[in-house]
């Protein structure tokens, strides 16, 4: 069996997980293990692309059309012919 350490976990997250574990009648460790097992075996868990989320909530289906500004370069062209 493997062992992991999770650094920089907010105290509020740990507190909420402890409460949920107690409600489920499990130890904190067993509850965290269960969450990780479910997440690793579920095909539903995925990271979201910010552009996909923006289209989902602000896309043309919702009456929002966003025009991206044209890109302009402030750099001047360099003439290498001299």
Question: In words, what does this structure look like?
Answer:
With 82 residues, this protein is an all-alpha fold. The chain has a domain at 11-62. 45% of the residues lie in helices and 0% in strands. The chain is built from 3 helices and no strands. It has helices at residues 11-24, 28-41, 50-58. Helix 1 (11-24) crosses helix 2. The chain is elongated and about 75 Å long.
- Count of strand segments: 0
> What Rg do the Cα atoms give?
24 Å
Q: Which segments are poorly predicted (pLDDT under 50) over 5 or more consecutive residues?
A: none
User: Could you give the order of the helices and strands?
Assistant: HHH
Distance between the termini: 69 Å
Structural class estimated from helices and strands: mainly alpha
Give the overall shape, derived from the CA principal axes: elongated
Please report which band the strand proportion falls in: under 5%, 5-15%, 15-25%, 25-35%, 35-45% or over 45%: under 5%
**Average pLDDT score:** 83
The level of helicity is: 40-55%
Number of DSSP helical runs: 3
Biggest sheet record: none
Short summary:
The chain has helices at 11-24, 28-41, 50-58. By secondary structure, it is an all-alpha fold.
Output the keywords:
single chain; 82 residues; mainly alpha; elongated
Compile the SSE list and pairings.
Elements (H helix, E strand, L loop, with lengths): L10 H14 L3 H14 L8 H9 L24
């Amino acid at each position: 069996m493997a062992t992991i350490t999770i650094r920089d976990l907010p105290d509020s997250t740990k507190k909420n997980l402890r409460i949920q574990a107690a409600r489920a009648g499990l130890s904190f460790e067993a509850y965290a293990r269960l969450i990780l097992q479910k997440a690793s075996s579920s095909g539903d868990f995925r990271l979201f692309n910010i552009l996909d989320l923006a289209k989902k909530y602000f896309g043309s289906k919702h009456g929002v059309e966003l025009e991206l500004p044209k890109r302009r370069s402030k750099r001047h062209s360099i003439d290498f012919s001299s």
